[in-house]
Fold:
Amino acid sequence: MAKFRRIGAVALQWGDARVPGAMEREREAVLNYIAEAGSMDVDILLFQEAFGFISTDLSSVQNRHRYAPGAGAPLPPVPARAYRELAVSLGDAYVQKARTAAQSAGVHVVLPILERHGEL
Structure:
């Protein structure tokens, strides 16, 4: 008899660099997703995170007010931070929290890890 595994996938992107604590809130969301996956009996949870702040000029999107009539004027562009600046090591407190949350929830979690200066 074949054993089936439930696999969940979550795509996250760090929030607007102008908002204080945006990255910390996104990281907290990761821990909440892990706990939720455990309550849903998910076996493997894949995270596809974009490590970097990205600015988008919404004025280039045609008919954007048709879909978001309340949208204000576009904000000035935000300089994108290098991926390397946002990299964390395997010993980082965030990775340890994710490991603890995964063990508590009984979920295998796949988080992207980015090298910094040739070290994990």
Observations:
- Residues 22-39 form the longest helix (18 residues).
